[in-house]
């Protein structure tokens, strides 16, 4: 089913897909199909399922497999599917990677094991064992706010020598760290550096980055694709114009309600306004209060009206 | 199989059992049996499997079930078995709890979901849903260094109203926090407050605590049982004498090698010196270097010779 | 003026004195006198001025000198005066230490320089230079929540070899750390280990500690002196009784209003209810809102009525 | 002496000047003069003294005043002088600001008070009181790694309404935060947003930022000025070329030796290779070991040879 050539580095907008959930707490297959079509018709260059935005940590293995299988089926080879296999248990990462390969995924993505405090050497060995044991290429996933450990630049460079390790997604929001990555991987153009926070998409692409894993692209895929294109083309006026829209989403939707989980609540609830998914979550998250939903709807409408896709 | 009356609060030394692993990475059943006998003959008041010391996060579900079943079988109702069911996925916690119940466990223990940053309200609801869905009593497990979220005293008090929630194990090492717990639960003598760090066992029992989940009790169960008894009896001279031995272990064994994982490496490697388990680990941990093992052996021998059990 | 023998280790309750401020933002000398008499008549074993509770960081050098001079004058050698000289600038620490010596202080207390991130080796050298340059004995002051750096046990041990360095006050609230200190200083009975958080006073004295730097002793000195005595005498029943009062203060007064600075606001405002000082602060702190003061007054009255001194 | 019009927002490269120190620990006035000429001849758009790079926290008030007076004298109105007045004591900030004004400085720069943990409301009032009390315009200085508190975007926006507060320097390295600032200050073009980490200079200027407070500009002012110009002109090829040089400095010089203070040690020691200052520091920092100096010299020579200014 896979039509992509893994020798060409992936670039562009790879939304970290939210996981559609129904009112019974199950994966909403219809929602997956709608969301996949929404994203592909929006021109995204790939999808990344089972990331932080995909609530990977809260789903059980059956839900994860259902999501992988259904996403790969609906995508049907039109764009690459990246599958998050992050797990505190190495064996869990490996098993999910094998399932992803059988389902037709393009690559897997793994953040460090996130319970124990570990050293860089332990981190290196964990990734090496993982890369040795899986049938698909692997992206490293730097997410220190959630995993407590950062993938040091030196560790990333050492790991990049492994032929299975093809890129790194950085969600640290640390601009100096990302520039250090770009500097150190300058002579490895096949190693893909993607940025997590969408607020930093344009600037990192301007500086040579490969694209972004932008949560907001679940909502407005065309907006982020356009911003990426403007950055590739070094079209500063267009970047400035689009960046304001991206920042409006960041400011008005992702901080709504003042929860630690406002980003995810705002994103999924806004997608429900578009009729694509239901505003349902997996524990420990739960929906906004009704009045919060109403307030968000007003905010969302204003932003949506500014974004004529 | 369960012979304990759950209406009597558990007290004393409940070692967080290390998980014996063989050279192939599997649960070493013979090691489990030896360790269980070592602990019970040492007079411990219960065992806690699949805690942080038990490398719970690194084991897959099959390994966890094997450990639960074999531990319960070997213990055979002589002491209560507490089972760690901590999982980022609520459904995972519930399933493991049901398995623990079928295996004859006394209670389950759960730390907060540890990937996403969550608020106290989300934490409360997570625990409430868990308590509503499981057949065994539940201990809360405060471990902020690993889970990033602390169980606020107010949250613990609110949760204690749930009849299934019977206690809290605090591994924060924060003495003020533990005293706040004791103060707030003063009028709920059935709610069990256990301390994690063994360095704080004696003082917290002196002040009214119920006991400790002492990692070092894997090695020298009698030492910690004696220290607990001395604290119950307010025998300060004996406490001071035994505390020095406990601190020697803490200082010489748990910090050996200067790794973030030195505690666990030192503990399991020392247990291998006693011939009880092998010095094997699950990724992301790996054994000491041979020279580190030799140095530890010297340190261990000195301490062991001081502890005439 | 100094009547104490510095060869006898200081022990007991050493309140971290709040700094009385008048409505013009100046040191309230009359308040200093009243507070000093309140403390001495309450039986405290010393006073510690210009600590965190004394708002040292917010006072200018003239205010600090005025407080040192007036406190030493009012105390008049009846109890030892410890003077906080913590400063990010070594020269500032030295100058204040010299002034403290001329004013008749017993010793100085210094937390690590708290702006730059520094290593233990830099920390060691800083303290060594300080100890070499001052005319009074020096207490180390561990306060990692405020200084970002912790004084490692090894560093404390190395520094204790300096004849000017006579003790350590630990405000980390980390019970394992404090026990590690006690274990490592076991054979240096002249090295004074005092605990900061008053919630931990009783237990650390039971385990061999020298006493506490209890903020609440500003309010109710006799209560803390009694608790200290009960701990010295290993009178558990009395400890349990008094600990509840101490915890009531901690819970009802120090967390009032939910500010990061609630401890200090609650403490000074309560002292104003006793007519000892005014509820005035130095920036960046400012007084409670009037309704918050009223609510606190109710809480305070309840607690005060339980504490018949 | 001031020749600049404060109504025109400052832009470009404003090096955070290191403080030249002699072997006796005093401000090295000759070094100040040499450094000022080096910077001005390098085309910088201003200098910022007494920042973190200037070791402000470690200097006493006399040293600070000497540095302010001498810098202003040597600069002699050719470029704006920004003076760091960060102090935990509000009165200290105010006094230094008045001295800066009398010396001919252009503006002052203040990070939050950095000892106590404070809330945003307290932070707001602190800055408001400061701005009300000083004769010069004020830049906010966000430096959460050192001050523990971040200046929330909302707080910065609220403070920007004060006519004395004219800009913000962000040293958080958080790219999302900086973009949030730019978005929120989009309609206030007179409010100057400068970035601290030099690794992020080019990208933030491309996105509309005003320039950078680049430590490396002490060494190679022309390099950073050129990079700034390239960013202003949207000359991506030139940016990519110069960014590599900037990153070489960041990687090879600022991390030398693996100290927490490696940045400052590497920077000042490299400046000594240029014969501009001596490699002297104020406690708690101290010089590299001789072998570390030799290794750095080799690294530095390689980089310097690549940078033909």
TrEMBL record, chains A, B, C, D:
The active site is at residues 141, 169. It comes from the Bacteria. SUPFAM superfamilies: Aldolase. Pyruvate binds at residues 53, 213. Keywords: Lyase, Schiff base. One of its GO terms (biological process) is N-acetylneuraminate catabolic process. GO terms for cellular component: cytosol. InterPro entries: Aldolase_TIM, DapA-like, Schiff_base-form_aldolases_AS, Schiff_base-form_aldolases_CS. GO terms for molecular function: N-acetylneuraminate lyase activity. Pfam families: DHDPS. Belongs to the DapA family. This is Dihydrodipicolinate synthase family protein. It comes from Echinicola strongylocentroti.
């Amino acid at each position: 089913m896979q039509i992509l050539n893994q020798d060409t580095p992936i670039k562009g907008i790879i939304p970290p897909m939210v996981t559609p959930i129904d009112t019974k707490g199950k994966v909403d297959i219809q929602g997956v199909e709608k969301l996949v079509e929404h994203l592909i018709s929006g021109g995204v260059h790939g999808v990344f399922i089972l990331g932080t935005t995909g609530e990977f940590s809260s789903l059980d293995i059956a839900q994860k497999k259902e999501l992988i299988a259904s996403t790969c089926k609906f995508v049907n080879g039109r764009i690459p599917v990246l599958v998050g296999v992050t797990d505190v248990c190495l064996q869990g990462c490996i098993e999910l990677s094998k399932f992803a390969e059988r389902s037709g995924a393009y690559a897997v993505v793994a953040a460090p094991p996130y319970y124990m405090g570990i050293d860089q050497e332990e981190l290196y060995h964990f990734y090496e064992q993982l890369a040795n044991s899986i049938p698909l290429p692997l992206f490293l996933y730097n997410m220190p706010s959630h995993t407590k450990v950062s993938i040091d630049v030196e560790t990333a460079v050492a790991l990049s020598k492994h032929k299975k390790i093809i890129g790194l997604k950085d969600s640290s929001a640390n601009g100096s760290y990302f520039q250090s990555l770009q500097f150190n991987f300058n002579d490895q153009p096949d190693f893909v550096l993607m940025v997590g926070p969408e607020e930093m998409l344009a600037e990192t692409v301007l500086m040579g980055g490969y694209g972004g894993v932008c949560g907001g692209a679940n909502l407005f895929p065309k907006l982020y694709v356009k911003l990426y294109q403007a950055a590739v083309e070094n079209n500063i006026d267009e970047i400035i114009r689009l960046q304001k829209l991206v920042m409006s989403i960041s400011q008005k939707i992702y901080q709504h309600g003042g929860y630690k989980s406002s980003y995810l609540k705002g994103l999924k609830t806004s997608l429900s306004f578009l009729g694509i998914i239901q505003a349902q979550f997996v524990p420990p998250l739960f929906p906004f209060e009704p009045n919060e939903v109403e307030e968000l709807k007003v905010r969302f409408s204003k932003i949506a009206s500014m974004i004529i896709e």
